[in-house]
Amino acid sequence: PDGLLPKEDPGWDPNTSAGLEKVKIYQMLILYGIQNGVEKPKNLTKLYEVKQGEKEAPSAFYERLCEVARKWTDLNPEDESNRMLFNMLFIAQSAPDIRRKLQKVEGADGMMISQLMSIACKVYNNREEVEEKEKRNRARLQVSLQAPI
After folding, report:
1. 91 contacts 132 by C-beta, under 8 angstroms
2. Are residues 18 and 68 in the same domain?
3. Transmembrane stretches, by residue range (predicted)?
4. pLDDT tens digits along 68-89
5. I want to staple 13 with a disulfide (CB 3.0 to 4.6 A). Which of 6, 19, 63, 102 is the partner?
6. For the segment 109-119, what is each residue's pLDDT rounded down to a tens digit?
7. Which CA distances in Å does 60 have to 32, 48, 51, 105, 117?
8. How many domains does the structure of the chain reveal?
9. Are residues 107 and 131 in the same domain?
10. pTM of the predicted protein model
């Protein structure tokens, strides 16, 4: 190890092939030490800051949640032991209409994410139909209020 990671200037000449090779190995070892020497700090609060946007699809929201987990924690969203945590995060931080539907599902925290995603996508895709229905009901109400008695 002292040959690869010397404590004093080894006098390697990067202008020779042997010296250049030793410098490259030295650089790779330093980078490896920097990247793997210290454990990644866990910042779980970053996970709780991720909320689904009003117009954001459930799949895009979940992918964003997973990206934050990979960046700020050592949690693996695909790991079976983390399923319950990510399901609860997905449910709790989904848009209000999706959250209400998912909270009514029995055993949702133990389901596969694909099952939750399927339910969430149905709610997301039905939003337009619900909005149209509400718009028609408001129009009927307005017409009935304006009609002479």
Report:
1. no
2. no
3. none
4. 999 999 899 999 999 999 999 9
5. 19
6. 899 999 999 99
7. 33, 16, 11, 21, 11
8. 2
9. yes
10. 0.65
